[in-house]
Amino acid sequence: MNFGQLSWGKTNRLAQIFRPNKKGEHHTVMLAVDHPYFYGPTTGLIDPRKTILPIVPYADAISPAKGTLEYCLDPLIPTPVILRVTGGNSILRREELSDEHIITSIEEALKLNAVGVSISVYIDTEHQSQTIKNLGKLANEAGKYDLLVLGITAVGAKLEEKVKGEGGKGDKDFDPGKYFAHAGRIIQENGANIVKTYFCENFEQVREGIQVPIVIAGGKKIPEKDALEFTFRAIQAGVEGVDMGRNIFQADKPVAMIQAVKSIVHEEKTVEKAFEIYNDLKQ
Question: What domains sit in the chain, N to C, each tagged with a CATH number?
Fold first, then answer.
């Protein structure tokens, strides 16, 4: 993985999240649990103390919002935290999903001992300029303390019908590879140290156009073997890891699922072998 010309602090924080394999390649399995900041008590996160605590020790990093972190997660678990710091929207008003603001300060993230902060950026939406400015402001503030910034290529209501998850099948003229490469590069250029995006057709455009580490969003819940399949394809395409939520904490056996995902990301297991690991651990 190319750490670029980063400071000692940022390089150290990246090394806490991205683990080297036997070949010296750095990868990560992040656990995304920030959904309640706009979803509310969604399935699998109604009480994170019951569902998330058993999974966290297996994650290379965890991505919660402030409420889940403070009230539901054990401060003695050493898993690095990337704190969600934007909000202001709700799933009840889908048309306003892209209307986000910075609502948690860098000072608060430091108090909570986060190694980084995450922010959604909505390219080609009515709030594009606002969310890019949010990213720039956050990157400047985080840079004062060498905190990492994870920029998320977020899909608002306007693009949902075009994108439809990771396939981009809603509009025959929509090129998902071109869109996510464009959006991800804008996020990189405005200060993100890690880009979170979606795996899609023509993903080589995304990988070639972004130089910072890329992690893939898990998206909506799909069958466990299908989730392992797209994890394998993404790693083969050159991404540095996954930031998976619903496909882990909504799995039939979440602890088994995160270990199966890690076997692909860190140990280069095949889909069949990873699914076998999942089924064995289910027992």
Answer: 8-282 (3.20.20.70)
